[in-house]
Specification:
alpha+beta
Length: 171
């Protein structure tokens, strides 16, 4: 079975030991066991009409390696984001939920790889938008079809805190 575009063949132990905990503006409410590499492969693999395995097409965008490495090291988490007047909880998405999002919203977001969903029905996805490839907040209600740019990567937003201020702003 081919490896989905962008996933590393193995998880180097040196890279895992360098991974940081979540940024201080996120409070971890719950965590899961680490997500094995094969779960990502299985979630996005599909077969053509002849039954030949095919790798997923994210419109030329590689799957975010930093997200994969983080999930392999720490698993998934439910995180609380708190601002002065606004609090939201977001859940990092498992491979099955990311695949469902891909199947349901491919027409609107053909290059989107789902990272998280908030209680407020907003989605954080790695995709191409008005500021290039990066992490965007998508409103499936259609108010902002292009999405709102949050950060360049999973690591920037969730670990370094770059763009967290956008999550705590009142909408």
């Amino acid at each position: 079975m081919p490896i989905p575009h962008g996933l590393p063949d193995a998880t180097p132990h040196k890279e895992l030991s360098k991974m940081s905990p979540y940024h201080k503006d996120f409070t971890v409410l719950s965590e899961s066991k680490p997500i094995e590499r094969q779960e990502f492969i299985d979630a996005f693999a599909w077969e053509d009409e002849e039954g030949s395995p095919q790798s997923p097409d994210f419109d030329g965008i590689c799957l975010p390696e930093d997200y994969f490495l983080h999930c392999a090291a720490y698993g998934l988490a439910e995180l609380k984001i708190a601002g002065e007047e606004w609090v939201d909880v977001l859940s990092l998405c498992d491979p099955g939920m990311a695949r469902s999002f891909r199947l349901d919203y491919d027409y609107f977001y053909p290059s989107a790889f789902l990272i998280a969903q908030t209680e407020k029905s907003m989605f954080h996805a790695y995709t191409r938008g008005d500021q290039g490839i990066g992490l965007y907040e998508l409103n499936i209600g259609g108010l902002e079809p292009e999405g709102r740019y949050l950060a360049a990567s999973f690591t920037d937003l969730y670990i370094k805190g770059i763009g967290v201020d956008k999550l705590t702003e009142m909408r």
